[in-house]
Amino acid sequence: MTQEQAAVNQLRTVLSQTLSPDAAVRRSAERHLDQAKKQPGHPLHVLRIVASSDVADASVRQAAAVHFKNIVKKGWDEDAEHGTDGIVISSADRRTIKSHLVELMCTVPPQIQAQCSESISLVAKVDFPSKWDNLLPELIQKFNSPDPNIVSGVLVTINAILRRFRYVQRSDDLYRDILYVLERLQAPLLTLFKTTGKAVDALANDPAQLKPRFASLRSVCRIFYSLNWQDLPEYFEDHMAEWMEEFAKYLNYRNPALEDEDEETEPSPVDVLQSAIVENLNLYANKDEEPFLPFLPNFTTLVWNRLMALSSFPKHDTLATTSIRFLSSLVGKLMHKSLFQDPATLREIIVKIVIPNIMIREADEERFEDDPQEFILGDMEGSDTESRRKVSQELLRAMCRQFEAETTSICSEHVGTMLAEFSADPAGKWTAKDAAIHLVL
């Protein structure tokens, strides 16, 4: 046995001990790891355990993957203000890690894949693209994998890497990095979105095969969001009709095989994808992108219809709030006034969207009973949380910017009706009074 193999075996034993139910054994193993991570070559020993398929206990590989991720998180950026916690990763080890990490991510089980994906994004945060220029081509090459779980994992990684393009101030360095990514990713991304869609059509009755593909579609949409956040790239403008055709397809998509009627909390794969699509539409609507304007009437109808079909269960909260925000971004702007100026349309928005989403639900009552303070904080104006009630109130305010008289008249009518319901049955209809109050706030 070589000295290196002996070190790996010892490390495997220590990692196993970190999972011990005996607190003393765990603490001893953790102290050992804390010292070992400061030794050159240690990260590669950890990766050998992650990659080893002969480790009988999968939990040891999982522990190794988490340990490696923490090493990268604390020790990769040598210029970090907080320092590297004494972790030493030599230049040779860094090159070896970067040359094997993507392939490793694509060969390990899903739980370990998630840790490897996060490790890649942590390294990329420091080195990409200037010190890791082959990362993106290597990830894109995996788009051709026949394994949908590998494709999904790769897309999750790309999404994590590109999130930094959002919510940051424009700069020459930022735009140089965005251009670098666009030149390599924009065409393969659209191709993957369309080919995955064809696979979805062919596998309509196979939920096990559909779920990773819907996860991929959702990740593509989040990558789309990152690439379009700063400006509308030329390629996306030239191919907008193709993107919008796919978006419209999935807003119309229904598949009982992916729905659980008994589920009240967790959104379905279709709901999650649709939320990401509406987020993209909202991005374009807020930017008033001229090439997007011809598609607006159709998407307004599609989002409206989807919103009308949503249940009041928490599983639909994200899709509901995202869809209501999309309508708010349109109804408050003069340039889109013609889409909403029919009095019947305004009444339908208030009656079928605003009021149902302002009403207290059974799930809200349960949240209040579990944690009254948290519920009140979440319901307060200015809270970071985004509730159905809050976005519905924002929709009303947007309506008042263009249709103040009509909106006020319709709301006054329904406030009177709800207060009358409360007066007739205060104990049973207290939610009507609560809704009336929030309708005029």
Structural account:
InterPro entries: ARM-like (IPR011989), ARM-type_fold (IPR016024), Importin-beta_N (IPR001494), XPO2_central (IPR013713). Keywords: Cytoplasm, Nucleus, Protein transport, Transport. The mean pLDDT is 93. The chain contains 20 helices and no strands. The longest helix has 37 residues, at 388-424. Among the domains are: 1-90, no CATH class; 340-441, no CATH class. The protein has helices at residues 3-17, 23-36, 42-51, 58-75, 91-105, 110-127, 135-141, 148-162, 172-202, 207-228, 234-238, 240-251, 269-287, 296-309, 317-331, 343-358, 362-370, 372-379, 388-424, 430-440. The chain is mainly α and 441 residues long. The N and C termini lie far apart (75 Å).
Low-confidence stretches: none
Supply Rg.
26 Å
**Helical/strand content category:** mainly alpha
Residue-averaged pLDDT, rounded? 93
* Helix run count: 20
- How much strand? under 5%
Number of strands: 0
- How would a textbook summarize the main sheet? none
C-alpha geometry: globular
Helix proportion: over 70%
Provide the succession of SSEs. Answer: HHHHHHHHHHHHHHHHHHHH
Distance between the termini: 75 Å
